[in-house]
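Example 3.2
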Amino acid sequence: MKGSSGGCRGGESLPIVVQRKDIMKHFKKYFPIIAYVFSMLVILLMFVLLVFIKTSHASQVTTSEQLVNCVIGEATGEGFEGMKAVALVYKHRLDKGMRLGCEAVTRPDIKEFVKREGKKQKDLAEQIIEKVWNNEYQDTTLGATHYIVSNMAQKPYWVKAMTITTVIGAHTFYKEK
């Protein structure tokens, strides 16, 4: 019996048209559920990725050595005032629950770079960080949470949402409007 709902026997098969109709009927019935589940999975995946990205950036700086590497890597050429200003920005960012935003620690040669800068620079960075964290310096950045090299050819997208607080050495400092 071709086309019967009782199943196929002895090499019989359902007509292709019936199979397509059944598939389309089930597809139309279950598509909204499948689409909803899929969209929830995508949202969950995006959330997991955002948490991973945020924690991976935050975990870049978990020790005082890494913070020293950041200050030296970002501002060693700026002397005491520039290094202090960068350390102040890091403190402001961490106090606000933001990620550190230190690009220097992503350099593959950061440890070698800090070593080449010498013990004097490392000692200076350590002193600055300690005093910044103990609130022993006046905030010369005026609450800045971001900075860039002043002579950047193309400014980052976030600059438009910021107010310039000051310029110290080769860095321009910003805070949210």
